[in-house]
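FYI - complex with S-adenosylmethionine, inputs then prediction.
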Amino acid sequence: MTAFSDEFYRDILEGLAVYADSSFHRDILMTLTRHQEPGIAVALNKNQMASKRWLADSLHASVGSSPGRVLILGGWVGALSAVLFHDRRFDLQRVVSVDIDPRCAPVAESLNATNARSGRFAARTADMLSLDYTGEDAADLIINTSCEHLRDFERWYARVPADQLVVLQSNDYFACAEHVNSVADLATFQAQAPLRHVLFAGARKMRRYTRFMLIGRK
Ligand SMILES: C[S@@+](CC[C@H](N)C(=O)[O-])C[C@H]1O[C@@H](n2cnc3c(N)ncnc32)[C@H](O)[C@@H]1O
């Protein structure tokens, strides 16, 4: 079998960016050119993108087009921010993507370059357990799709203010060593993250695991 060079794939991506006239594709291409970060391939793989798409569809159906100021926690390389920004159904005021890993912010800024330039996107390096959700880090919507990665989930959730609108995702993928807080099923996730007003609660079967999502007010 022929091994194709990076240039081979880059040419195709560039062609698709021109064809689709898409700043999303152009930002992805620029990110791949500037950052040799293997996590990008995982963050943009079909399971991850399907989960982000599921989130966008469910968020739109339950909250509408204007979620206001959005804070994404455990935002990794910023794929979810990019998906939401390039989804024409949404009119996003501002998105801040926070991750504890300092390697994430430069990649996230690049993957969201179009919106970073206009001042609507920023990436930060911080521990979500140390943010001030009622003060300087307050947001209309808090999204945490990394609940399975949070050993101290209970302590984090206790810091989220009452009545806060949240979107939470977790999974039952216990086989992954980094998943220190996976849950067996949707009921367990709901018990871990109780909501006063549930707008959406669902499970989605992927090939190797099931992903769970909750949307509502704490
Ligand atoms: C592998 S990624 C995201 C997986 C997830 N299913 C998704 O796509 O949203 C998990 C991220 O959570 C971040 N993370 C873990 N603990 C954190 C914390 N206390 N504060 C901020 N980020 C955290 C990790 O650095 C990592 O980038």
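The two ends are 53 Å apart (CA to CA). The longest helix spans residues 46-63.
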